[in-house]
Write a structure and sequence with these properties.
Helix content is about 0%, strand content about 60%. Strand 2 and strand 3 form a beta hairpin. The chain starts with 7 loop residues before the first strand and ends with a strand. It contains no helices and 6 strands. It is mostly beta strands. A 4-stranded antiparallel β-sheet has the order 3-2-5-6, with no helix packed on it. Strands 1-4 form a two-stranded antiparallel sheet.
Length: about 80
């Protein structure tokens, strides 16, 4: 759900294999908070969960975050996430 209170579920579908796949969360200031997934991804439906924590395992604060999905330099998708506790 958006806004999120504890965790966010990210469902996505890839049309083709992604060799340099990454799902990253950025703060509203453009700072990378966390990289959730990296590496190769097969085509098809996938699901990731973000537990609302940053790379140091600290809970992020309330505010607007961006989920950015890329395959190398190719932007696949961007989604806003509003974190409210």
């Amino acid at each position: 759900p958006n806004p999120a209170t504890e965790h966010v579920t990210i469902d996505y579908n890839l049309q083709k294999k992604a060799n340099a796949f990454e799902v990253a969360i950025y703060s509203s200031l453009g700072q990378k908070v966390l990289s959730i997934a990296q590496g190769s991804q097969a085509p098809g439906s996938h699901r990731l969960e973000w537990n609302g924590r940053d790379a140091a395992a600290q809970m992020v604060g309330n505010g607007l975050y961006y989920m950015v999905m890329t395959n190398g330099s190719e932007l696949i998708a961007t989604e806003k996430i509003l974190m409210m506790r």
